[in-house]
Amino acid sequence: MKVDFEVLRRQPASMRKASFAVVLVVSSLMLPGFACAVDTDGPTVSRVTVTGEQMRQLDIAPAKEKAFTTTKSAIGQIAFNEDASTAVLSPFSGRATKLSKKIGDDVKRGDPLFEIDSPEVAQAQTDFISALQALEKVRSQLNLAKRTLDRQLSLMADKATAQRDVDQARNEHVAAESDFTTAQGAVQAARNRLRVIFGRDGQEIERIERERVINPLITINSPIDGTVVNRKIGPGQFIRADASEPLYSISDLSVMWLKAFVPESDIAYIRVGQELQVKVSAFPNQAFTARITSVGASSDQQTRRIVVRSEIDNPERLLKADMFATFRIVTGDPASSPVVPVASIIRNGDAASVWVECESRVFERRKVLLGGEVNGLVQIVSGLHTGERVVGRGAIFVDNEVK
Fold it and tell me: Which of 41, 93, 220, 323 could form a disulfide with 78 if both were Cys (CB 3.0 to 4.6 A apart)?
């Protein structure tokens, strides 16, 4: 069709607008493809008319109704259960001579982790032996003082000694008893130091007491049941008692933590005891169930998010520390809403729309607000009513043709 734009230009403004609209409509009807009805007061096409042949390429179905639960989602990461984890340090310095466990090994409480040769251990045993020798010496002095006192008392009964000698013997016996009590306390303190600080068991202490032979090697045992998740020690390495970095880290992997970062706007829906559905990228088709155990007391100043901690059962040990995770939590009772197929949704940035049948072979663009998605169906929160017929397959082609 040939259009004389000079004639259109000479017309009054009111007539010019109407003539231009007629030209566009007629032109669209003459072109192959979709015919569009143009809203001349707006920048976009709101309706489109299709031919019978084109209708066969589209799937049109009424919006169904489905019950949806209100959920909130956030991101987080998997972490070790700090309530069932511990760091192993050495209470004294020495050189590592033997490593019994490596990363990934399961351990029981009391299992040996590593062995060190420590001069501090040797000194503690030396002090114990010295205390034993001092006790034996004081015991001999006490026995001697006891015999002397008994002899003086016997002589006193026969009036063969002076009272002064009896009093002196009695004072020496009391002093010997006091020294013996002090020596017993020193031996017990040395024994407790070996048992509590250096981890020597009763049999080892009895051996030292019996043989008086020093063993400078000391074994550090696991304080809990779990799995070795970290090790910072090598054979022959010198270990300092004041080291800040743990030599071994042990954790029970049967229960892991989820540290989720929840926006401030959603924290009102979060409560201790709620269940979460957790997913990790390593297992996209598997959902893990967690339960909230703690809600943070402060918000991050940069991200404006609050840390929410949950516990996840991990019997198969699929979950690993520092895995990226997402979770959903139900925050309300189920409510019915219209749903349409995913193919019906036309997205433009943050906005979404669908093509709704308003007449036979005539479709209208409708802006909608989206909700959740389940099994290929998208919840429509607003903008569409149940029963309205919506383009499914082919909606994107309708939209592209209009553009």
Answer: 323
